[in-house]
Design goal:
Blueprint: H1 2-50, E1 54-58, E2 61-65, H2 67-106
Length: 107
């Protein structure tokens, strides 16, 4: 009877571990997407540094835009992306610690 309970407990922990691993994978993918977007934003910031005229794509139109306004938008976007990446990194770390704990518990 006790052996059956131990086996059930171990199976629940394994299922919990699988859910955590899946969540960790999702967080890692989201983080990669934000990191790519951050790289693109930083590249755009460098590009507009030397440009005299700035154009912004809105829908299917390319519209001439104020350089300072675009710089501000890009800086705000960069700050937001960095915050999101930091948040996801913290979540990733927490989930990794929980996974390690579960692995030790199961072993």
């Amino acid at each position: 009877m006790n052996e059956k309970k131990n086996k059930e407990h171990k199976n629940r922990k394994i299922q919990e571990m699988q859910v955590l691993e899946q969540s960790l994978q999702n967080i890692i993918l989201q983080k990669q997407v934000f990191q790519m977007e951050l790289s693109e934003t930083q590249a755009a910031e460098k590009e507009i540094g030397d440009s005299k005229e700035i154009f912004k794509i809105v829908g299917q139109l390319m519209i001439k835009t104020d350089k300072e306004k675009i710089k501000e938008e890009l800086l705000n976007k960069e700050k937001l992306l960095k915050l999101r990446i930091d948040n996801l990194s913290k979540q990733e770390e927490t989930l990794s610690e929980k996974l390690e704990s579960l692995k030790k518990e199961i072993s």
